[in-house]
Design a protein that fits this description.
The chain is an alpha/beta fold. The chain is built from 10 helices and 21 strands. The chain starts with a helix and ends in a 6-residue tail after the last helix.
Length: about 375
Amino acid sequence: MKKWLLILFWSFSGGLFPQNDTLKILWAGDIMVHQPQLVGAWDAQRERYDFSNSFYFLKPYLKSYDWVIGNLETTIGVKPYQGYPRFSSPSALLDALKNAGFDVLVTANNHSADKGRKGIEKTIRYLQLHDLKTTGTFVNELDRQLRNPLLLEKKGFKIAVLNYTYGTNGLPVPLPTQVNLIDKEQIRKDVLKARALKPDEIIVFFHWGNQYQLQPSATQKDLEKFLHSLGIKIIIGSHPHVVQPVKFDEPSGRLTVFSLGNFISNQRTFPRDGSFLIETSLVKTERGLKLVSVKYLPVWVYKYHLGGKTFFEVLPLEDFVDEKGYFVNQSSYRKMMRFKKFLDGYKKKYSPGVEKVAPKLSNTGGLKTIPPFVRIAPLNLF
């Protein structure tokens, strides 16, 4: 009788570790808002900011993941709003990111302290009001103890996320607020604390490296080696504003994304005008969590002028390869294709084992049914 009960349990449960229990996480790079983006997002008629059109074409992708995580490289809610060099953006940015499918925004980066204590506190408060999970900056030590690491629990998986930055551009971090800085001894302590919470995986998101460099620095490689010595297998990176190699070793489950590049910004110098998002697929096995697949989603930031306004759209690149007619001018299309050619060659040389995410819009005819108002009044999309 006991034998039959065990067989029935195994049949109905799919085994102790059913293979269809896959956790898919999508990682996005630097979310920046420069002055032209602020100007473009201002709706004078309604007297408010709206960034919705920027993420319109990515929404079908983002909504298909269990967790979408990005690097928020601006403070939120401190007026007057401004871009470089000391960023502050309206909370409407968070409305658009949440609506598009973002779940988590990490905040430890070199612009965390751009607006002092008020900027750190308001950013955290607005993220929480928008139901966006966050870690990396904290209102005080108690807050740090509660959200460092950040625990993400879904579908029976528990993931611990730690987030650190190399610095804050020389700006002080006013007490009692805190910003996680890259410090090996502190990281060691945080990893031990995280491990005591018994997560299935600990993932570290670093803001590191040298700006505009297509290869990781010696410091990045040293930190990668250090994290491996602590048993950390998955490392995600941002800050250089360009893509850097993706190292994935399937047998060991180790993944290092040295730099995701710019998710959105006004940086138009090639190849800062595009990037990739990284998809990680995790499954549970008898031996624990296993990273079974790593894919990349190429994106390009399309900046154009129409009706006296400036628009910024993050385009899933592969969906727009055959859509020349969508572009206001053909020079933009050629710039997108230049980035595609660069990224295809770069990936082949430095990340040969990482495949592309399959296009969603072009496969479903989505681009053939774009409503006319997308081009005329993109601020009314959602």
